[in-house]
Amino acid sequence: MTHAIVPTLPSAPTRILIAPDKFKGSLEATEVAAHVAAGLRRLVTEGAVVALDIDELPVADGGEGTVAAAVASGFAPVEVDVTGPLGAPVRATYAARDGVAVIEMAAASGLAFTAADDDAARRSGTYGTGELVSHALDHGAGRIVLGVGGSASTDGGAGLAQALGLRLRGPDGELGPGGDALRRLVAVDASGLDPRLAETEVVLASDVDNPLLGPDGAAAVYGAQKGADATAIADLDAGLARWVDALAEAGFARAAQVAASPGAGAAGGLGFAALALLGATRRPGVEVVLDLIGFDARVAGADLVITGEGSLDEQSMFGKTPVGVAAAAGTAGVPTVAVAGRTTLTAERLRENGILAVYPLTSIEPDVATCLARAGALLEDVSEILGRNHLIGGQPR
C-alpha cells in the first residue's frame, strides 16, 4: 500500500480551511462547515487565540451533495421540472457556471422519490436525468459533470438515452420506462440522438467499479437496496443484457466491451449509458468535485484543513471525501484533521491516509441517537476541543 504523505502539523495554525462532506441523516455539508467554524470561533471569543482566518468549503464525493457543493463555491443553481423515476413530475436542481453543468442524478432519478419495493425497482427509470442533461445543453453547457449515487433505477441509463433522442422499440411500439421493460426491447433507433453530445465533454463522477452485468453487476449488487427480490434481480439483469445486445445490433460496436468495463454498473447502469452513448470519461468523484470547487486555490496558504463525514470507517478509505481532501491537502503541504459522527478507524489507519486525528461526536456523547438529534451542537463542542488541541498559541499573520 502506498502511504499518503503526512505533513508536520505546525504549532500555531491560524488560517483554517474547513472542507467536510455531509453527516448523512443529520447535517448537510454546508451546515457541518458552519458548526465547525462556530466551535472554533469560541476560542477567539474566550481569548484563547487572538484571531482565526476561517474559510468554509463544503465538499462531496460525486454523489448526493455534489450540486450543493458546487453552488456553495459559486455555481448558479438551476431548477427544472423533470420526470421522476416512476413518471411523476419532480423539481430538480443542477449547478451551472461558465459553460459547465453539474448534474446529480439522484436529484431527478433518486431513491428519495420511490418506495424501496419490487414494483418500484422494476419500473423506475432515468428519463428525468436525461432531461437535466438536455436542459443543460439547451443553455450552453459544453462540459457536463454527471454525479451518480442514490439511484432508484436499474435501467442501464435507457431512460436517460430516450430523453436525449434515442428511440427504443418494443413489441407494441415505443418501449415503456424501467429496467424490467428492457427484456421486451426489440430494436434501438439512434438516428435522433442529440448531436450536441458528440461535441460535449461528459465526466462520470463515480468510484463504483462494478461492470454492468452478472454477479458483480448493477442488478446483482445494488438491486436489493432498491427493493428488488431475487426474481426481480434476475429479470433486471436479463433486461440489461438485452439492452447491451440491442445497442450492438444498432451499430454501437463497443457496447459489450463498455458493459464489461469498470463503472458501467454505477447507478443502476447509468454509468454504462454515460460511457457508451455520451462518450463520458470516468473519474473519481471527490477529485472531480475538488477541481470544480477550486480546492487547490483555497488550500494554498492554509495552516490546517478540517474535513469530515458522518461515519469515518473503512469504507471512507475508498474514494470518500475525507481521504480525498487529505490527499489534496497533503500535496499542498497542509496537514488535515477530521470531525465525524463516529469512527471505527485506528490512529494508524487514519495517518496512513493523511489524517492526523479525528474528533467524533461519540467521543463526548456515546448515544448515537442523541448524536443524530443534536449533531450541530455536539459538532461545535468537538470542534472547540479540536481547536484547543491544535490552535492554542496561534498568532494571526
How would you describe this structure to a colleague?
Belongs to the glycerate kinase type-1 family. The chain contains 16 helices and 14 strands. It has helices at residues 29-45, 66-72, 106-109, 118-123, 127-138, 158-163, 218-222, 230-249, 255-259, 266-277, 285-292, 295-299, 321-331, 347-352, 368-373, 375-390; strands spanning 15-18, 53-56, 76-83, 89-97, 100-104, 143-147, 167-170, 173-174, 187-189, 201-205, 281-283, 304-312, 336-343, 355-360. The protein has two domains: 15-59 and 301-390, 3-Layer(aba) Sandwich (Rossmann fold), CATH 3.40.50; 66-286, Glycerate kinase, domain 2 (Alpha-Beta Complex), CATH 3.90.1510. It is an alpha/beta fold and 397 residues long. The strands form three sheets. Strands 3-4-5-6-10-11 form a six-stranded mixed β-sheet, with helices on both faces. It has a five-stranded parallel β-sheet with strand order 2-1-12-13-14.
Mean pLDDT: 92
Characterize the main sheet. 6 strands, mixed
Strand line-up in the sheet with most strands: 3-4-5-6-10-11
Number of domains as seen in the coordinates: 2
Number of strands: 14
Q: Do you know the CATH architecture of the largest domain?
A: Alpha-Beta Complex
- Approximate strand percentage: 15-25%
What structural class results from the helix and strand content? alpha/beta
What's the shape? elongated
Provide the CATH superfamily of the largest domain. Glycerate kinase, domain 2
User: What percentage of residues falls in helices of 4 or more residues?
Assistant: 25-40%
Specify the CATH class of the largest domain. Answer: Alpha Beta
Gap between N and C termini:
38 Å
CATH topology of the largest domain: Glycerate kinase, domain 2
Uncertain runs are 1-12
Q: Whole-number radius of gyration?
A: 22 Å
Number of contiguous helices: 16
Series of H and E elements: EHEHEEEHHHEHEEEEHHHHEHHEHEHEHH
